[in-house]
Amino acid sequence: MGKRLMKGNEAAVHGALMGGCTHFFGYPITPASEISQAAAYYFTAAGRTFLQAESEVSVINMLYGAASAGARVMTASSGPGIALMGEGLSYLAGAKLPSVVIDMQRAGPGLGNIWPEQSDYNMVVKGGGHGNYSNITLTPASAQEMFDFTRKAFELADKYRMTVFILSDAYIGQMMEPVEISGPVLHGQRKDWAVYGDAQSRENLISSIYMSPALQRKHNEELQHTYRQVEQEVVDYELYMADDAEIVFVAYGIVARICHSAVHALREQGIKASLLRPKTVFPFPKNVVEDFAKRRIPLAVVELSSGQMADDVSLAANGNVEVFRYLTMGGETPTVAELVASVQRDMATLGSRRSS
Amino acid sequence: MIGQVQKFGKSHSFYDIYERKGEGEQSTHYCPGCGHGTIQKLIAQAIDDLKIQDRTIFLSPVGCSVFAYYYYDTGNIQCSHGRAPAVATGVKRTVKDAIVISYQGDGDLAGIGMTEIVHAANRGEPITVFFINNAIYGMTGGQMAPTTPLGRKTLTTPFGRDRDRDGMPMGMAELMQAIAAPVFIERCSVATPKELLKTRKAVHKALQNQIDGKGFSFVEILSPCPTNWGMTPVDARTWMDQQMTLLYPLGNFRDAVVQQEEQPAEHEVPLWLDDEALVELLKGASDVPVMRMEPLSETQRVKIAGFGGQGVLSAGELVATCGMSEGLAVSWLPSYGPEMRGGSANVSVTLSMDEVGSPLVDHPNVLLVMNGPSLDHFEDQVVEHALVLVNSSIVTRKVRRTDVRTIYIPATELAQEAGLVSAANVVMVTAYLLISKAIPLDTLKRCIPLVLRKKAFLEKNLSLVERTMVYLQENGMV
Predict the structure, then answer these.
(1) What would the pLDDT profile of B69-93 be if each residue is shown by its tens digit?
(2) Among the three residues A203, A233, A263, which one is the final residue of a domain in this structure?
(3) What residue of B is the nearest CA neighbor of A97?
(4) Whose C-alpha in A23, A137, A167, B444 is 20 to 30 A from the C-alpha of B176?
(5) Distance between CA atoms of B138 and B160, rounded to whole angstroms?
């Protein structure tokens, strides 16, 4: 099968339609607008539903309504828009409604700028809205993965009755790469819990209220049970040149691509660098981190944030090994040369510390 | 049937026993004298009469009626505060035959949910909205609502609602009247048996409209809240009838006869594509045939820069498409955002035998500069021995670096001679590919139609490629 050169943003819309998504509700925001624009064209041309809502608050509630009626639904936005959706995302979790949301991260806080950051990690991975809940969070690092992960997201959302986030960044969305439009078209099945406006579904209720604390407790425990199941079944990552690792980069999205080049550059300098690239950050591949830490192989988290994912890495490393943090904020990205210099410096310090 | 009063028994559309409620399964959770029970009974009767129980999806808001799903034996969705019209939009656009009822109080609809109700109305969503106006936040214990009368003491207006501080009470039916799309707007009351009958009729009509696919129907119903008003149920009804209706006049505001106009052809909604047609749509016509090629001598890290409008990004797209067509790994990363509008533009393209790591080109080994500022900006960033191509029609100065290979091409002039005002980018790409031997001429010619937006200029572009080749040969550049 041939490939098409396309942006990550466009690839996501292709993935959505191949994943059986029938309803896209959008609201413009840079750098995610291209996703809505592509959806406006392709969803409409395919006889699916695209609607531009009046706000991100309305968007997430339209998702709530369409998901209640059994549709495969999605939207795409960036930090400020995702923040506005917080309450709705919590309602989706509480009512166990499947949905897919793309966050094309930009720099914050506040209005910030439109360049890439990875500073929505905590908001997306740890929930973001009120109450105890989690979102499955996939982290693509190429246009092809924007397609593949978005397509797969609808299956995961339906299976676990959860919101699945595609946590990406401005560069992965803007970048064009060859994309293979692969696999059969997937379709959502009729859901026995959804409300279709027919006799068969008349008894169904979509709600997140349990007035009795005992029932609300049980509901919460069931949700947590699902999240533990997801941790067992959904975790995904790539290990690159890790067999002889002396130091392991941990990075996702655009930064993982830069680290990939840095691995080669460092090996040319005689340092056996490797890369752990989480493809899911909830669930986080903590066992892999734990394993490196126990083997005393130092970790270097490269992240476009104040260290939000680095905290998860440190938690899994549990003090067993050094966790270096190479952090960049504000919309800038580290260069390969900078990463090489940082690793050389820290490995030298570590070597002298360990030998003394 | 309207007019026939069903004296006894519960509507089929209510559950016999309110199991979802738990304790007190036979009675509602509403206070004595509350209007919700009366209004919900009217709606249940209308659902029965219209035989739409199976089709009905009832949206419960946040407020006293949050538990409407205890009672209605229909599909039920509980919504977040104020957002029911957005939820209804999502539902109705998924299950078009469903009868979607948005039942909302005044804090919900006229306060926090003002945006959602206005836009749902403006889109003419074919749903039915029942707006229960009791001029107070009931569920939270009696705070000021947007509809609370001036001077009224509430928990948050302990000295009375003040116009200068709190604004005037809002008339939602009047506000709806300012919007073109709704087909039915009426304000009724449950204060007296006479008004109750009118309400019953309006409820019926608003649902019939949805059955008929007519459009957005809005029924505002004035309703008593004796508990939070601090009145007896009887006094509350008297006050409604004598005072509240002065503030909120009853009556029909709109009952439009909607003609089903045919949509103009250009707005025809495409039909649902089956799997095969969908895949065809997504794969498009620009499927690039992948062919084997000679190995690249080195990974090409290309930076192309110039003014916005010089075709910088599409030049990059052409290079990347050629690379993909040769079976190479490629990436294309633009500068983007506000700086693209009228300012400078640049794009990073990587062509590689192995998978592309970082798509960011920090230190290019190929630089195509279309204007002066781009040369100033990128000259120092290129690696030693880089290939630097300069559009000498526009860039007046020479390259200062002596450790790079520099080629000057009057790209803009060559393009203009070929009758193309904005194809300097094609000249630059052609020169780059031929001089570097990264991509053969045949591949370039094959890929131009895949990238070119204006197909009418295809022949002229292909001639320009030939002309560029001749120029390079004449000047000993290839």
Answers:
(1) 999 999 999 999 999 999 999 999 9
(2) A233
(3) B77
(4) A23
(5) 17
Is B313 inside any structural domain?
yes
CB contact under 8 A, A61 and B270: no
d(CA B124, CA B187): 19
From CA A172, how far away is CA A144, in angstroms rounded? 10
How many domains would you assign to chain A? 2
Which residues of chain A lie closer than 8 angstroms to B98, CB-CB? 69, 195-198
Q: List the CATH number of the domain containing B72.
A: 3.40.50.970
In a domain, B263, yes or no: no
List the CATH number of the domain containing B423: 3.40.920.10
* Same-domain pairing of A169 and A243: no
Residue range of the domain that includes B376: 291-474
Which 8-state DSSP code applies to residue B286?
-
Residue A197 and residue A250 in one domain: no
Q: What is the DSSP string of A196-248?
A: -SSGGGTT-EE----SSHHHHHHHHHHHHHHHHHHHHHT--EEEES-TT-SEE
Nearest to A258 among B80, B89, B358 (CB): B358
Q: Tokens for B107, please give them.
A: 């804090």
Its domain, for residue A350, covers: 237-355
Q: Do A58 and B119 lie within an 8 Å CB cutoff?
A: yes
Do A30 and B337 count as a contact with CB atoms less than 8 A apart?
Answer: yes
Is residue B200 a part of any domain in this protein?
yes
Q: How many residues does chain B have?
A: 478
Q: Out of B271, B336, B358, name the one closest to residue A257 (CB).
A: B358
Q: Does one domain contain both B373 and B443?
A: yes
* Mutate which: B52, B87, B127, B326, vs A, most A CBs within 10 A: B87
Task: Tell me how many domains chain B contains.
Answer: 2
| A216 & A330 share domain | no
Residue B126 has pLDDT above 90, yes or no: yes
Is the domain of B88 the same as that of B188? yes
A17 at B interface, C-beta within 8 A: yes
Q: Who among A23, A61, A196 is closest to B83 (CB)?
A: A61
High-pLDDT (> 70) share of chain A, %: 99
Domain shared by B24 and B114, yes or no: yes
3-state SS class at B371: coil
pLDDT of residue B453: 85
- Are A260 and A305 members of one domain? yes
Contact A64 B90 (CB under 8 A): yes
The residues with which A51 forms a beta bridge, in sequence order, are A25
By three-state DSSP, how is residue A146 classified?
helix
Whether residue A320 sits in one domain with residue A183: no
Beta-carbon count within 10 A of A243 CB:
7
Residues ≥6 apart with Cβ < 8 Å to A55:
A27, A84, B115
- The confidence score (pLDDT) of residue B257 equals 74
Q: How far is A53 from chain B (nearest CA, A)?
A: 8
B457 is a domain residue: yes
Is the distance from CB of A336 to CB of A262 less than 8 angstroms? yes
Six-digit token string for A6: 């396309």
Domain endpoint, select from A218, A233, A248 = A233
Please tell me whether residues A103 and A132 are part of one structural domain. yes
Q: What is the model's pLDDT at position B258?
A: 58
**Closest to B155 in 3D by CA, of B166, B141, B169:** B141
Query: What is the distance between the alpha carbons of residues B69 and B203, in angstroms, rounded to a whole number?
Result: 19
pLDDT class for B267, splitting at 50, 70, 90? low
Q: Over the stretch A197-228, which tens digit does the pLDDT of each residue have?
A: 999 999 999 999 999 999 999 999 999 999 99
Contacts of B77 in chain A (CB under 8 A): 65, 68, 195, 205-207
User: In B264-297, which positions are buried (b, 16+ CB within 10 angstroms) versus exposed (e)?
Assistant: eeeeeeeeebeeeebbebbbeeeebeeeebeebe
If asked whether residues B27 and B102 sit together in one domain, one would say: yes
The yes-or-no verdict on residue A287 having pLDDT over 80 is yes
